[in-house]
Write a structure and sequence with these properties.
Blueprint (H helix, E strand, L loop, with lengths): L1 H43 L3 H17 L1 H4 L10 H14 L7 E13 L3 E10 L3 E4 L4 E14 L2 E14 L4 E8 L1 H16 L24 E8 L4 E3 L6 E10 L4 E10 L4 E4 L2 H6 L6 E4 L2 E4 L13 E2 L8 E3 L8 E3 H16 L4 E5 L4 H17 L4 H8 L16 E6 L9 H13 L5 E3 L6 H4 L7 E4 L2 H10 L5 H8 L3
Helix pairs in contact: 1-2, 2-4, 8-9
Length: 493
């Protein structure tokens, strides 16, 4: 009896171990069966549902053995490669588990279908021009699932057609214009007039544009030329707009040229301007008022105003000027030009040239006195009042027409020389200025050989500041033009 009591716990422990091992074996074998069954089902009938069921069964097997795999207890697999890796890892650590690997690859078999070519006419497009609506290849597409399964004593593979798609080809159409070019250009000009006049009833596409509050900006605008693009126009859809040309426009208020592109939309047969708001935003205010055959500037900052025989400054124009306290002559200069002239003066001195300021800023009233002085000088020579004024006007500007009123013009001589004389000091100063002044933003206003164009004699002493950048550009072309004309054409004022 005692002997039996001693052996009973041993039998009980032994039986428990056998039960655990048996249960584990059955459990593991059951997971092998479940994985294999779900993989076979996925192979026999590959669908999104059967594939997802396979992943769920694999995930469950891994979660049940998370301690053995040293993974998270909620590990979820949704990838064929990971399903293979983790099953093999579980098999290595638990020999009684046999992995079953399912793999599905999506492939497409594509047969391209060529498109047709057609030629058509567009009754609203200009004759001699064409555009191309690009074609698109069609296709007969068969989506195929390549399904494979690998397990112990099992290696299967098959292709299953899943979906067949047919894409209709789109023909490539070339459209030839048949409308008279002059008629189209007349239409574009009419559209431009409607655009400027904000005729939204005729051109509702411009309804949302912000027109300038100053209506004078819309004056003196002239459509000069219509240019058509010669390059082939390609579009993907007839609803698509494409640039077909441009119009050159003269802004008479400031003598600037602008280019405005226009587009064509086949589906609506409309010619529309491209970026019209930008065009409106860059219109200029009225720069001149015509009076007695002359033009008087309306500019607030007239630094680059083309003051000459025809373009005058208004009597009350007064720039901000500073006294030149570092050079002899007791003159004033525009605040904008002050620092650059200081640099010029210092550089000349370092090169052994001592400059003297003969004249700087002169107000309108100062110019009245200056011009009258030179007229009186001509009268003393015996000329009539009329002829004396003509003679004086070849070397002295009438009030309002002088660059000195800008505050950026200086008359420069050599120290120790009388104004405008041919003494050695003057010649040395003028030669230095001719070669170096542009480096500091100053250029000659009345060059030799341009007397008939400028209306003034050659003045090697008269220099005007326009800034270093512009001066460098002007230096490249000064032999072929003169300053006032260049500034006018540049439209910088």
């Amino acid at each position: 009896m005692n002997k039996f009591r001693f052996k009973f716990p041993i039998f009980l422990l032994f039986g428990l171990c056998i039960a655990i091992i048996t249960g584990l074996y059955i459990h593991t074998s059951s997971e092998t069966f479940k994985v294999r069954f779900s993989a076979l089902k996925g192979y026999q009938n590959p669908t999104e549902d059967t594939v997802q069921q396979y992943f769920r069964v694999v995930s469950s097997a891994l979660q049940n053995n998370s301690r053995l795999l040293n993974t998270q207890s909620d590990l979820t697999i949704n990838d064929f490669t990971l399903a293979k890796i983790y099953q093999e890892k579980l098999s290595d650590r638990l020999n009684i588990f046999d992995p079953t690997i399912l793999k599905v690859e999506e492939n497409s078999i594509i047969d391209k279908i060529d498109y047709a070519f057609t030629q058509q006419k567009d009754a609203y497009f200009p004759s001699g021009y064409s555009y191309l609506k690009q074609g698109k290849l069609g296709a007969d597409i068969l989506n195929v699932w390549k399904v494979s399964i690998i397990s112990e004593n099992l290696n299967l593979e098959k292709n299953k057609p899943v979906l067949q798609i047919y894409i209709e080809p789109i023909s490539e159409d070339i459209f030839f214009g048949v409308k008279e070019k002059m008629e189209v250009e007349s239409l574009i000009k009419s559209n431009f007039d409607n655009f400027l006049n904000n005729s939204t009833k005729k051109a509702p596409e411009y309804l949302k544009l912000a027109y300038p509050e100053d209506n004078t900006k819309l004056e003196n605008i002239l459509l000069k030329e219509i240019k058509w693009k010669d390059t082939e126009n390609k579009i993907l859809s007839l609803n698509e707009s494409f640039n077909i040309g441009s119009i050159n426009i003269n802004l008479g208020n400031c003598s600037k040229m602008r280019t405005l592109n226009f587009s064509y939309t086949p589906s609506s047969n409309q010619y529309l301007f491209v970026q019209p708001q930008e065009f409106l935003d860059n219109l200029c205010i009225k720069q001149f008022i015509e009076a007695n055959g002359y033009f008087i500037g309306t500019c607030v900052d007239c630094t680059f105003y083309p003051a000459n025989k025809a373009y005058a400054l208004r009597p009350d124009y007064t720039p901000e000027v500073l006294p030149i306290d570092f050079a002899p002559g007791f003159q004033r200069i525009s605040k904008a030009a002050y620092d650059n002239f200081r640099e010029l003066y210092k550089a000349a001195k370092e090169d052994g040239v001592d400059l003297l300021l003969a004249s700087g800023y002169r107000s309108y009233a100062d110019q009245v006195s200056t011009f009258n002085y030179w007229v009186s000088t001509e009268l003393l020579k015996g000329y009539s009042q009329y002829q004396a004024e003509i003679n004086a006007n070849t070397y002295s500007a009438r009030p309002g027409f002088s660059e000195h009123q800008l505050g950026t013009a200086l008359d420069l001589n050599g120290a120790g020389c009388d104004s405008f004389s041919n003494c050695t000091g003057n010649q040395q100063a003028w030669d230095w200025l001719a070669n170096n002044a542009y480096k500091f933003g100053f250029v000659i206003s009345y060059p030799a050989g341009k007397e008939n164009e400028t209306g003034y004699i050659y003045e090697p002493w008269h220099y005007r500041w326009i800034g270093k950048e512009l001066a460098a550009e002007y230096k490249k072309v000064e032999a072929d033009t003169y300053l006032q004309k260049w500034l006018f054409e540049l439209g910088k004022y």
